[in-house]
Write a structure and sequence with these properties.
The structure holds two protein chains of two kinds. By secondary structure, chain A is of the alpha+beta class. Helices cover 70% and strands 8% of the residues of chain A. Chain B has seven helices and ten strands. Chain B has helices spanning 41-48, 74-78, 96-106, 111-124, 140-152, 170-185, 197-203; strands at 2-10, 16-25, 30-35, 56-61, 64-65, 81-85, 158-162, 189-193, 206-211, 214-219. A six-stranded mixed beta sheet of chain B has the order 6-7-8-3-9-10, with helices on both faces. A four-stranded antiparallel beta sheet of chain B has the order 2-1-4-5, covered by helices on one side. The chains are: A alpha+beta, B alpha/beta. The complex binds adenosine-5'-triphosphate and magnesium ion.
């Protein structure tokens, strides 16, 4: 739009000046800036905890999802080519993690392992005559259980397929849980966003009120609007930065020591107590949290300024 | 330099602060505007600063018709003007140097330039030694000289002063007027609103007298003619 829009025509010294003024704003407006930073920190901290919990839950759910299998049985006398074709077909579908072909021999072996473990001699009677000769099947592993119902319908329509065995219950529970977690995340994050924006907006409003005289003088001297606004935007962004960096640092430390402690204490249940490593968690949490802080700071101050500093 | 053609300003209530004013001020002139309280002097200054819009009539400054100016162009226009007020309007939380440097920052002057210009301005107004003082540590006369330095540091074409000596004793008032004269001699057009009869009489400049929003006298090298 206009050539003197924020940041375009400003010299380095002007940027430095605006930064300094932004810092001064925070300093002069100590109580409110502190309140803003504290609230912002609390919001981002809550967000971080929430994020960590959700991420850990999701990794558990993902593991559970991976354990969900469907079993695809074939009609009597279905040729190996058709079964191979079906296998290839299934692999290409969305939601399928992997496909495992189980031959009649493997099926029989595992059957024997379960039912004749105590009396292997009983199984010997079938030695040359596999009773499960028609029980070649696929084990299909999923990575998205919400697609399971569609997959079942699809696979059942394929040539040679007799039956698909799947537990819709487990799938439903898992996908409902995923949805619920998604909705709660969105709700909590929206709420926190609103509170933070409101606080930043208040701080900047007060900053503008405190500097009313200065702004009037700036106008008379011939300051452009962007020059007048820049320190307030800087103030908002700085509050966002500080308000995000503090809780993220704290979270890093707390998560690291807490998960370490828990894993140590419940050593025996390692299978259960398996947390995401802190670095993996922060790969997403750090940029998201910082962006959230800076974004809230920027928009909170930007729109407040637009409201209060109209020419 | 300044042209007003049939300018009227009515505030909301319908009182005419200015009523059909026409006037011409040349480049390099020194003009006093005087008149009783409420006669419209400050209103005239505000119109020139484009803080207010006239109800009717046209104002031209340095060839620019203010009525046609876009909002976005106002900052650039104001950089052509320097302003001084009765109440100094300095930033209380900044020292003398920073108050003047502030005016240069606002118009995006490189820091190197600022370091040269500010001391030059301070020695012009005779405050070179007090650059570190804060406004509250200065006398009224000194504060007004800082305000003057701030108004001049961006080399304005026109200096507007609304009762610059209103809060000063005679000695300080004379000092400010002497500075305004020096500035005028350097080529800046100077418009001074004042009540100070003594000064107007002494300086023998053009005097425009307003009464109830109308020009009642406009005399070259005049003495003070109070219109009651
Ligand atoms: N914002 C305003 N709203 C309504 N009326 C106003 C406003 N500002 C000034 N006036 C009126 O306009 C008239 C002229 O005011 P102005 O301030 O121009 O007078 P002045 O000549 O500067 O007076 P003084 O010498 O006391 O400073 C006065 O009657 C005043 O009451
Ligand atoms: Mg006045």
């Amino acid at each position: 739009m206009t050539s003197d829009r924020l940041g375009i025509r400003m010299r380095i010294s002007t940027i430095g000046y605006c930064l300094k003024q932004g810092l001064k704003n925070i300093w002069r407006n100590k109580m409110f800036s502190l309140a803003s930073i504290a609230t912002m920190s609390a919001c981002i901290f809550l967000f971080g905890i929430f994020f960590a919990v959700v991420q850990n839950f999701q990794s558990i759910v993902r593991e559970a999802e991976e354990a969900v299998t469907m079993i695809v049985y074939f009609e009597k006398g279905t040729s190996q080519e058709i079964m191979d074709a079906v296998g290839e077909e299934i692999k290409t579908r969305d939601g399928v993690a992997s496909v495992q072909f189980v031959t009649p021999e493997q099926a029989w072996d595992s059957f024997k392992g379960v039912y004749f473990a105590e009396r292997p001699e009983l199984a010997e009677g079938f030695a040359d005559d596999n009773p499960l000769v028609d029980y070649a099947h696929y084990e299909v592993y999923l990575n998205d259980v919400s697609l399971q119902a569609d997959l079942v319908t699809y696979i059942e329509s394929l040539e040679g397929v007799r039956r698909v065995r799947a537990s819709q219950e487990v799938a439903d529970i898992l996908s409902n849980f995923n949805l619920l977690v998604g909705y709660i995340s969105i709700a909590v994050i929206l709420l926190l966003l609103c509170v933070s924006v409101f606080l930043i907006s208040n701080t900047v409003t007060i900053g503008i009120a405190v500097r009313k005289e200065e702004i009037a003088i700036m106008r008379l001297i011939g300051a452009t609007n962007s020059f007048i606004k820049a320190p307030f935007v800087v103030e908002g962004i700085l509050i966002g930065l500080i308000g995000a960096a503090l809780p993220l640092g704290l979270l890093y430390y707390l998560y690291n020591s807490l998960t370490g402690y828990l894993e140590e204490q419940f050593n025996l249940l390692t299978g259960f107590m398996k947390f995401l490593p802190v670095n993996e968690l922060f790969e997403i949490l750090l940029p998201t949290g910082m962006l959230l802080g800076v974004g809230i700071g920027f928009f909170g101050s930007f729109f407040t300024i637009r409201k209060h500093l109209r020419v | 330099m300044i042209d007003l053609d049939n300018v009227t300003k009515a505030y909301a209530k319908g009182t005419h602060a200015l009523n059909g004013i026409s006037l011409h001020i040349d480049k390099g002139e020194f003009v006093f505007i005087t008149g009783s309280s409420g006669s419209g002097k400050s209103t005239l200054i505000k119109l020139l600063l484009k803080e207010l819009e006239p109800t009717s009539g046209t104002i031209k400054v340095n060839g620019i018709t203010l009525g046609r100016m876009k909002n976005r162009a106002i900052p650039k226009y104001r950089r052509m003007l320097g302003v001084v007020f009765q109440d100094f309007r300095l930033l209380k939380d900044r020292n003398v140097y920073d108050n003047i440097a502030f005016a240069q920052r606002v118009v995006i002057t490189p820091t190197k330039q600022i370091r040269k210009n500010v001391p030059a301005m301070l020695s012009l107004v005779g405050l070179a030694e007090k650059y570190k003082s804060f406004p509250r540590q200065l006398s009224g006369g000194e504060q007004q000289r800082v305000a003057l330095a701030r108004a001049l540091v961006n080399s304005p074409k026109i200096l507007l002063a609304d009762e610059p000596t209103g809060n000063l004793d005679p000695k300080n008032s004379k000092e400010i007027m002497r500075l305004l004269e020096i500035i005028n001699e350097r080529g800046t057009t100077v418009v001074v609103v004042t009540h100070n009869q003594e000064i107007v009489d002494e300086m023998k400049k053009r005097v425009i007298v307003l009464d109830k929003g109308v020009i009642v006298h406009d005399e070259r090298q005049a003495g003070y003619t109070y219109a009651d």
